[in-house]
Design a protein that fits this description.
8-stranded mixed β-sheet; 8 strands; globular; Putative lactoylglutathione lyase
Length: about 130
């Protein structure tokens, strides 16, 4: 159900150092480098990361959580986006391809508390049913 989650942190260097050490026994490594955001995932030879740390924006009073739900196809991403807006969510990125890597297609909405919620078809189409 979940594809990945991002924690917004006050000190990115400190957090990266912490998670590199804390997650190593679980087989996680730093592998997705979208500096200053870093993604961690199992060392499986792919670029897939399911846990990210990202610096807080200077304007943020408290961290905002980012959760990405895995969608079976692009139509589901579009339906999620429309349903979330109809339910009172705010646009944070219309459905479309993203520059993170080939095959990444998603939509972003902000929930009523400002959390960034994403629906995504990801990882170069390995899951997508076109």
């Amino acid at each position: 159900m979940l594809d990945h989650i991002t924690l917004h942190v006050q000190n990115i260097e400190r957090s990266i150092a912490f998670y590199e050490k804390a997650l190593a026994p679980l087989g996680y490594i730093a592998k997705a480098h979208h500096e200053p955001t870093i993604g961690f995932g199992v060392d499986d030879g792919t670029s897939h990361s399911d846990f990210y740390v990202s610096p807080m924006d200077d304007a943020e009073i408290s961290p905002v959580t980012h959760i990405a739900f895995l969608a079976p196809n692009r139509e589901a991403v579009q339906a999620f986006y429309q349903a979330a807006l109809a339910a009172g969510g705010r646009d944070n990125g219309a459905p479309g391809p993203r520059p993170y890597h080939p095959g990444y297609y998603s939509a972003f909405v902000l929930d009523p508390d400002g959390n960034n919620i994403e629906a995504v078809v990801d990882w170069s189409g390995w899951f997508e049913k076109r």
